[in-house]
Amino acid sequence: MTSANFPECLSITLQSEGGLSLERTDPGNWTGGRIGKGTLKGTKYGISAAAFPNLDIRNLTLDDVKPIYKAKYWDEIGGDALPPGFDLATFDYAVNSGPARALRDAQSVIGAPADGKPGPLTRAKAATAGTREIKALCARRLSFMHGLAIWKTYGKGWSARVAKIEAKAVAMYLRVQPGVDVKAALADEASKAEKTAGTLQKAGAAIAVSASGGAGTGAALPAEVNLLVLGGVMVLGLVVAGALVVKAVRAKERAKAYRSAEMAIGQ
Predict the structure, then answer these.
(1) Is 4Fe-4S found in the keyword set (predicted)?
(2) Cβ atoms of residues 259 and 205 within 8 Å
(3) Number of H helices, E strands in the chain
(4) What is the architecture, at CATH level 2, of domain 1-180?
(5) What would the pLDDT profile of 113-171 be if each residue is shown by its tens digit?
(6) 3-class SS of residue 64
(7) I need a surface site. Which of 28, 32, 104, 169 has the fewest CB within 10 A?
């Protein structure tokens, strides 16, 4: 729990934040926070026109954005008082979706009142946050993002980013735990995610085949009703199968992120 973590957390977050983006379909690029509202100033180094409508986004430098990240995101989540790893997970979430939302989800995970303010009870509850809380926070973050209207456009990149942050945050937490073989622990996390992905993929495929085959439709029903029931069963089965496939993809991304974090140890 130290401000010394801020530079490392910022460096990791900035790896996911590119140069200038003027994508018109991104609400964050508009000063009004909605597509077509205000001026299209864009986003640079993660600093968006929606959040900072009065800044000259195009001409921002890294030296310009560091104090912004410190004051507007790190300090707003009480980053100095959060444990290593949990601070990264909360900070990166804050940069994407705002510090109040990120902190509320972090507070929910650790059992503190979800008021979006880094008070003494939040600091006390956060003191014991570890890998379980990091994973839970990342899952909440991804769930929130999945509900956004622009998920179809940005979802793939967001999902990969959250997986990467989870793995790096877990590695950050583990490396300060006495007697822990960080590389082995990350390898174990990757293996578990790979196994989960395989199980979900097989289950999804089996359900899809069953739904397409139309098993168990109730032959005693009138023909027209029977067809409706059959159609409903098929649709429901395919929806469930699709959801499992999505979860399998998410598990694969987590496995890939943990493998990458494992390989980075000792480099």
Answers:
(1) no
(2) no
(3) 9, 2
(4) Up-down Bundle (1.20)
(5) 999 999 999 999 999 999 999 999 999 999 999 899 888 888 889 999 999 999 999 99
(6) helix
(7) 32
